[in-house]
Amino acid sequence: MREDFIQSLNEELGADVLFGADIPARFRNDWAGLEPVTPLALVRPRTTEQISATLRLCDRFKISVVPQGGLTGLAGGARPIEGGVALSLDRMNGIDEIDPVMATMTVQAGTPLGVIQRAAEEAGLFFGLDLGARDSCVIGGNLSTNAGGNRVIRFGMAREHVLGLEVVLPDGTIVRSLNKMLKNNAGYDLKQLFIGSEGTLGIITRAVLRLQAKPAALASALCGCSGFPAMLELLKSARLRMGSALIAFEVMWPSFYDFMTGNLPELRRALSEPHGIYVLIEAGGRDADENRTMLEHILSDALEEGWVSDAVLSSSEREARELWAVRDSVSEYGRLMGPQTAFDVGLPTSVAGSVVSEIEAAMKNRWPDAIALSYGHIGDSNLHFVCNIPSLGKSQPHKEITELVFTAVGRAGGTISAEHGIGLLKKPYLKLSRTPEELALMERIKRAIDPNNILNTGKVLTI
Amino acid sequence: MREDFIQSLNEELGADVLFGADIPARFRNDWAGLEPVTPLALVRPRTTEQISATLRLCDRFKISVVPQGGLTGLAGGARPIEGGVALSLDRMNGIDEIDPVMATMTVQAGTPLGVIQRAAEEAGLFFGLDLGARDSCVIGGNLSTNAGGNRVIRFGMAREHVLGLEVVLPDGTIVRSLNKMLKNNAGYDLKQLFIGSEGTLGIITRAVLRLQAKPAALASALCGCSGFPAMLELLKSARLRMGSALIAFEVMWPSFYDFMTGNLPELRRALSEPHGIYVLIEAGGRDADENRTMLEHILSDALEEGWVSDAVLSSSEREARELWAVRDSVSEYGRLMGPQTAFDVGLPTSVAGSVVSEIEAAMKNRWPDAIALSYGHIGDSNLHFVCNIPSLGKSQPHKEITELVFTAVGRAGGTISAEHGIGLLKKPYLKLSRTPEELALMERIKRAIDPNNILNTGKVLTI
Q1: Are A196 and B189 in contact (CB under 8 A)?
Q2: Of A139, A364, B152, B404, which shows the fewest CB atoms inside 10 Å?
Q3: In a mutagenesis test of the B interface, which of A188, A289, A424 is the best target, namely the one with the most B β-carbons within 10 Å?
Q4: CB–CB of A346 and B183 under 8 A?
Q5: Coil, strand or helix: which one is B210?
Q6: Domain count along chain A
Q7: Are residues B273 and B352 part of one domain?
C-alpha cells in the first residue's frame, strides 16, 4: 500500500516531491516549538492542478496531508504528521492581478504578506492586514488561521479582507470562487468555511483580497493611566471620537512594560513616572494635522477627566516608532526569558482587567519567582500573556500554567484563542471556549467535507 | 401521521400555533409577489426553547418549516410551503442588552432593523446596516439573507456586523455562540454558515451585533458625468481620497433618472442639463466642514479632469434629502409602472457599463416600448434593473426578461443576486453564477446539517 502510494505520488508530482531524510529541516516544524516531525513525503506543487492530484491520491490511500505556508504558526497547525504528506504552498507564490477599479488583488496562496502589502502600496492602495511575521508568513496561512494583528479594530480580521477563494477539497475537487464583488448573495458563502478552519476542510490555493484607501498619515500617543477602569474610559472616548481613524489601541500592563524597559537598556521610558497601565493609540486620519489635533483633543479631555495621568504624542514618524519600541520588543522574549509559555486569549473587555490581576496573582502565588507579562490588543478584546519561572530553568510546567490561564479565561467567558488558532497545542482545551453543541456541529462539518479525515488530521478537532 | 403531528404541535406550542384558515393572510406570502400559500400551521414562538421543540417535532415527522421574519424578502424565501409549518419570529422581538464597553448589542431575531438603529443612536453609537425596509424588516431576516443596502461600501454587508449568534438546528439542537469579542479563533466560525443561507441550515434566534462610532455629519453631492468611464474615474478618486468617509456611491442611468423626474413632478432636477450618468456621493467625515471641504476638493478636481460635467453639493440636511429624492423614489414603481420584473445583480465594475447598455438595448430590440430602468450601488458592484412592457399590460413576460438579463450577467462574470438572495425566484438560475463544484459543495453542507431536508425545503438549492 505505502509503496503503491509512493510510486503514484512520484508519477504525479515527479520533481516536486521529496521523501523522508531528503526533506529539509524547515518543513518539519512550525513556530509552536513542538518536537519536529519528518513526514513520509514533502510535496511542493507549482499549480492548483498538482494540489488536486496530490489530494486525490492521498484521499484514495487515506494518507494525511498537512498544508504548510510560512510555518510561522504558534499552535502547531502546520507541523507535519508522521506517515503523512506535508504539502507546502511555497512555490505557489505570486500576484496574479491587481484590479484598480474593483480595488482588489488576486494572489496565490504562498505569497508573503509583506509582498502583498508593498504591491498594494505601489498601486496607490493599502492592504489592511498586518502582523509581526509579515515577511515570513504567507497569505494562505493568514487566511487559514484567520489571522489578526494590530489593526483589527479598524480593518478587521483576515476574513474581512477576502472577497473570493480558490480551494481544493480533500477529494481533489477544485472549487473556484474567485469573486471580486463586495456583494454576492448567490447561495452559500462557501469561502467562509475555509477561512479560519486551519487547513482541516480544504487547501486555499488563491485569494481575491479587498484593498483599501491608504491612511494618509499615522500618529501615535503613549498614555499612562491610573488603572484598568480609567483606561476603559479612554477606550470608549477614542472609539467614539476617532471612529474609523482609530487604527490601534494597545495596552501594556506594568508587568510587561517594566520588564521590557528594565531589561532592554536601549528602550527609553517615554513617560517619567510609573503608571497603573500603559496605552498606545494610533491615529490614521486624513493628514498629519488632523491626527495631531484629534489626539490632542482626546488626550486633553482625558487628562481633565482623570482617565489619563500623563501622555506623550509623536510629532514625527521617528518619534512614533520610538513610542512603539517597547510594544514591538516582543521578539526579544526568547533571549530575555528563556523558555516561555505564551498565550493569545480573548476576554470580554469589561472583565479583562480583573482576569489579568487574577492570573498574575495566581502565578506568583504558585511560583513566587514567576514572571508573567501581560499586554495586548485591548480594543479587540485580545490579550497576550507570556510566562516563565526562572527557578525551573528548562523544565517549565507548561501544562500547569496553561490550565491555570485557560481555566480563568474560560470562567470569564473568554476564548482560549483570539487570533493564533487551535492547531495541536490548544486542542485539549477547546472545550473550555466552546459548548458541546458547537463542537458537535464543527465535527459534523468536518465529516461532511473530509469523510476520510485526511486534511490536517488531528488538528483543531478530536476526530 | 398528519393528525399525530398536529396533536403533538398543539401539545407543545398550545396558544402559539394556528392552523389552516385561521392563519392571517400576511403570513401566507412575502414581498416577492408570488401566489400566496396557506401552510398547514403557523407557529409564533416566544422563546428559543419553543423553536427547538417545533423543529424537533417537524424533523421527526419530516414536515417542512419556513422561517419568517418581516416578510419583506424579494426572492420568495419566506413564502410558506403547502403542508408545512410557517415559523414566524415576530414574537421574539426585543433588545436583550447594549454593552457600551464592547460596543455590542444583543437582540432577538424578530427585532425590526429600525428599532435597532434607534437604540444604537440612543446609546451614542451607530448600527451600520441600513435599507429601505428598515421599519418592516427584522434583523433575523437581514442576517439570514446577508442583507446589503446603501452603506455597504463603508460598513459592509450584514455578515460583517455580526459577532455572535444563537441558532436552532433542524433537529432542535440549540447552538449558543453569543460571542462579543472582535477576535475569536477557537475552532470553526460557525455563525458564517447561518448568515446568508436563507434559513436553509438553521433558524437564527438571537444575534450579537457590532456597533460603530456614529458619523458626526453627512453631506451629499449629485454629479452629472459624461458616461460610465468618466464615472469610474470619479469612483476611484473618491475611494482613494475619502477612504472611510465614503459612505455611499450610487449611480443612476438616464433611463432611471429621466423616467422618475419625468413622471413625478414633485422631483426637482437639481442639475439643469442632461448627463450620460448621474452619481450620488455621500460623505461621512468628522464634521460638516470636513465633509464640505472634502467633497469640494474632489469635485473641483473631477470637473477639471472632465470626469464630472456638473455637480451640486448639499449645504444642509434638507438639501441632502432633496438630492436623494430621485434615488429614494423607487417605492413609486408600482404606481408608475404597473407589473415589473425587477433585478438585483452584481457585475464587475469595469464591465458594468457595457452590460447595462447591452441589456437596455436588447430589451428595446425585443419589445420596442420596453421600459428598462438601471441604477444601483456601483461602489459595491451592485446594480438594479426594473423592467416593464406597457403594451403587454398584466401579462409581463417575466421568464423571458429574466433569461435575457441573467444570461448577460452570467456571461460578464456577474452574480444573479447581489443582495436579495436566491429564495425560490432565482433558484432556476443559480447555475449561471455558480460552478457545478460550488453547487455540489452547498448541497453537501445542506445534507450534513439538515439530513431530512425540512428547513426551507426547496429554497436556494434544488435538493
Answers
A1: yes
A2: A364
A3: A188
A4: yes
A5: strand
A6: 4
A7: no
Do B86 and B111 fall into the same domain?
yes
Q: Quote the cell numbers at residue A286.
A: 486624513
Residue of B125, B173, B179, B185 to mutate, interface with A, max A Cβ within 10 Å: B185
Q: What is the pLDDT of residues B146-183, one digit of tens each?
A: 999 888 999 999 999 999 999 999 999 999 999 999 99
Find the CB nearest B434 among A186, A294, A430.
Answer: A186
Provide the shortest C-alpha distance from residue A264 to chain B (in Å). Answer: 30
What is the extent of the structural domain holding A182?
Answer: 95-210
Tens digit of pLDDT for each residue in A6-41? 999 999 988 899 999 999 999 999 999 899 999 999
In a domain, A257, yes or no: yes
Query: Are residues A182 and B382, on separate chains, in Cβ contact within 8 Å?
Result: yes
Task: Give residues with Cβ within 8 angstroms of B59, minimum separation 6.
Answer: B170, B171, B172, B452, B454
Cell of A141: 496561512
Contact state of A183 with B449 under an 8 Å Cβ cutoff: no
Which residue from B minimizes the CA distance to A229?
B101
In whole angstroms, give the CA distance from residue B89 to residue B69. Answer: 6
- Mutant choice from B180, B182, B232 vs A, greatest count of A C-beta within 10 A: B182
What residues of A are in contact with residue B156 (Cβ under 8 Å)? 160, 182
Q: How confident is the model at residue B59 (pLDDT cuts 50, 70, 90)?
A: very high
* Confidence at residue B425, expressed as pLDDT on a 0 to 100 scale: 94
**Structural element, H or E, at residue A376:** strand A371-377
User: Is A86 exposed, middle or buried, given 0-12, 13-18 or 19+ CB atoms closer than 10 A?
Assistant: buried
Buried b (16+ CB within 10 A) or exposed e, A147-173: bbbbbbbbbbbbbbbbbbbbbbbbbbb
Q: How far is A73 from chain B (nearest CA, A)?
A: 13
Helical segments of A220-372, H only: 228-242, 254-263, 288-305, 317-324, 333-337, 349-366
Q: Is B442 an interface residue toward A (CB < 8 Å)?
A: yes
Residues A227 and A313 placed together within one structural domain of the fold: yes
Instruction: Give the pLDDT of residue B331.
Output: 79
Closest-approach residue (CA) in chain B for A419: B185
- For B100-218, where are the E strands, in sequence order? 104-108, 162-168, 174-177, 203-210
Cβ contact A213–B242 (<8 Å): yes
Query: Where does a domain end: A302, A330, A358?
Result: A330
Residue A349 sits in a domain whose CATH number is 3.30.70.2740
- Say if A454 falls within a structural domain: no
Question: B384 and B425 in one domain?
Answer: yes
Do B419 and A100 lie within an 8 Å CB cutoff? no
Q: Which amino acid is at B374?
A: S
Tell whether B345 is within 8 A of chain A (Cβ): no
Residue of B nearest to A291 (CA): B286
Beta-bridge mates of residue B8: none
Question: Does A445 sit within 8 Å of B245, measured CB to CB?
Answer: no
CATH classification of the domain holding A232: 3.30.70.2190
Q: What is the ipTM of this complex?
A: 0.96
A243 touching chain B per CB within 8 A: yes
Q: In terms of domains, do B34 and B163 share one?
A: yes
Using alpha carbons only, what angle is made at residue B339 by residues B415 and B140, rounded to the nearest 5 degrees?
Answer: 50
| Nearest CA among A285, A210, A206, A216 for reference residue A246 | A285
Task: Show which of A63, A90, A117 is a domain's final residue.
Answer: A90
Pick from B157, B183, B437: CB nearest A183 = B157
- Shared domain for B281 and B377, answered yes or no, is no
Q: Determine the Cα–Cα distance for residues B90 and B68; give it in Å rounded to an integer.
A: 8
Alpha-carbon A288 to chain mean position:
29
Query: Which set of grid coordinates corresponds to residue B10?
Result: 398543539
